[in-house]
Automatic annotation (TrEMBL):
PANTHER family cross-referenced by the UniProt entry: MANNOSYL PHOSPHORYLINOSITOL CERAMIDE SYNTHASE, MANNOSYL PHOSPHORYLINOSITOL CERAMIDE SYNTHASE CSH1-RELATED
GO biological process: mannosyl-inositol phosphorylceramide biosynthetic process
InterPro entries: Glycosyltransferase_domain, GlycoTrfase_DXD_sugar-bd_CS, Nucleotide-diphossugar_trans
Organism superkingdom: Eukaryota
Species of origin: Schizosaccharomyces osmophilus
This protein's UniProt keywords: Glycosyltransferase, Membrane, Transferase, Transmembrane, Transmembrane helix
Pfam families according to UniProt: Gly_transf_sug (PF04488)
Subcellular location per the Swiss-Prot or TrEMBL entry: Membrane
Protein name: Mannosyltransferase Imt2
Gene name of this polypeptide: imt2
Key word Glycoprotein present: no
A GO MF label: mannosyltransferase activity
Length: 345
């Protein structure tokens, strides 16, 4: 039987080697945890000021440029670039009662916006007509959630506008977000989310997303990793990290992705959106995904603990097995024969 200290040394050495391989393999994903995204944040003060000036302009009250803060001219004073289109998705054109108030809040607050509710039938027809190369992947997705995710990237790339999940109601006018070529919201603990997104047509980041959707259309056995790594927030968060690394330092502002912080997204009187109970994802797989997403840190911790306990048990059994003893300990336990009995060479 192998000594316990020897078992632990072998076990730790193997996992350090395995960890090194994983770090190299997933280095882009790991960099996302340390990335400095501060330069891309839209300051809350800038958003509030923009809303105030848009309101004053609607009342025909002029604003002197000399009074504008130094940090504002990068946005304010230019024309809006995102088209006034609101995109949402659902199975049919009949939205469930629990989300009608959220839907109506966005429509009524933006009477001069075009509103499009993408049904499952409309979504498939759109892909077949404009992006036929992707139709086989679109149809092959095992979960409707993946199709609901994918269609939002395609229509935003094609038409531009702002996508909003059905369980997000509008608290503020979206006009002040139209000045940024691409807007995503920050999500905890890292990355960006896909429940609210705004962009100009043909933005390079959305082109980057579309070019990677087919490559990411893989099964990871369980619903949560399959959805999150193929079309969900984790997939676009990893793509966001890669996209940032590919951007030249002198790239134009139009290629950047601006980040909306949590307090400007929801849960405050100054936020753009308000939360309605329920998930706008399709079918029963949504509840499992949402539950896992809320308990992601606990699930990861439990998974690591279970893995290490199980793998150490397997290592211990293997190290105590006869095969191991024959391979590694046979020389140590072999009794040396007297010199007189050893054969001459």
């Amino acid at each position: 039987m192998a000594p316990t200290r020897y078992k632990i040394s072998i076990f730790l050495g193997f996992h350090l080697f395995l960890l090194g391989i994983l770090v190299v393999w997933f280095r882009n994903a790991l960099f996302m945890f340390t990335d400095d995204f501060q330069k891309d944040i839209i300051p809350s003060a800038e958003l509030r000021y923009s809303r105030e000036q848009i309101f004053l302009a609607s009342k025909n009250t002029s604003v002197e440029n000399s009074k504008l803060p130094e940090w504002l001219p990068s946005v304010f004073g230019h024309e809006p670039v995102i088209p006034k289109i609101i995109h949402q998705t659902w199975k049919t054109d009949t939205v469930p009662e629990k989300w009608k108030a959220a839907q109506e809040s966005c429509i009524s607050m933006h009477p001069n916006y075009q509103y499009i509710l993408w049904t499952d039938e409309m979504s498939r027809n759109f892909i077949a007509e404009h992006y036929s190369w992707f139709l086989k992947y679109f149809d092959a997705y095992p979960y409707n959630v993946q199709r609901a995710d994918a269609i939002r990237y395609f229509v935003l790339f094609h038409y531009g506008g702002i996508y909003i999940d059905l369980d997000d109601g509008c608290r503020q006018s979206l006009d002040s977000l139209l000045y940024y070529p691409a807007v995503f919201r920050r999500t905890d603990p890292v990355g960006i989310s896909n429940d609210v997104m705004g962009t100009v047509p043909g933005h390079p980041f959305f082109s980057f997303i579309l070019s990677n959707l087919a490559r990411n259309a893989k099964s990871y056995v369980f619903p949560y990793p399959t959805i999150m790594f193929s079309t969900g927030p984790l997939s676009i968060s990893f793509l966001w990290e890669r996209y940032q690394n590919l951007l030249p330092r002198d790239s134009s502002a139009s290629a950047r992705i601006r980040i909306l912080l949590e307090q400007d997204y929801k849960f405050s009187n100054q936020s753009y959106f308000t939360f309605y109970e329920g998930s706008s994802w399709h079918d029963k797989d949504a509840s499992l995904i949402l539950w896992a997403n809320k308990h992601i840190l606990g699930l990861i911790s439990t998974g690591f603990i279970a893995y290490f306990l199980l793998s150490y048990s397997v290592f211990s059994i293997l190290l105590d097995s006869r095969i191991y003893e024959r391979c590694f300990f046979s020389r140590q336990h072999k009794v040396a024969l007297p010199l007189s009995e050893q054969e001459d060479v």
